[in-house]
Here is the input.
Amino acid sequence: MTLTAPTADTTPLPDTHPALLAERAQDKPKGERTRAQIMMAACNVLDRTPPQDVTIGAICKTAGIAHGTFYIYFPDRDALLADLLLGFVAHLQGRMLAAGHDTPQDRIHAATRAYAVMFEQNQGLMRCLVHHLDTFPEARAAFHRLNRDWLETVVGAMQRRLEQEGRAVTGDELWRRAYALGGMVDHYLSSLFLSREPGVVAVSASRDAVIETLSLIWERGLEP
Here is the structure.
């Protein structure tokens, strides 16, 4: 498998937030389907436009609705994006938790893969989370909680392992390493998918190789 740039095809991929929105809107009343349609259009616009440049007009054009219809569901653009980001953070966390639950013997690798895939397939939303959260305080708090929950998982697993092996590393030291490692992973994925730094892209053609590297960073970085 290879890591690929987004194409012009707007069909939601399995791990995209628009795919989840479409799935949840099925068989719902028309109003709920229209609301989901607007949120899906916003995802599409974010994939090609920086958040600060997103306009209600662009969202309405992509959704195929009139401006007046937009205001039936959202008071303004920022309210839409805040709602969208809160839902996406929950989606992202759910994917990571499910991956770890399905592969308990290698939870770090499984959750890292889930995070990287979600990052790749939801680049506009991830750009908001990683680089533009000051505008959306509730989404920022939710994303910080997601990071904290993930770090608690990896730090807790390492502490239990060290205790079983009769080794000790202070909790503060493990937490410092975990926060630093999380920042490194976000920076790598941002360089690959968002800024498309040529050097990173050149060595990241294989998804499996990227996942192995990021998982190795977590495992080696937490070792005493």
Remarks:
- The CA atoms of residues 9 and 44 lie 10 Å apart.
- The two ends are 33 Å apart (CA to CA).
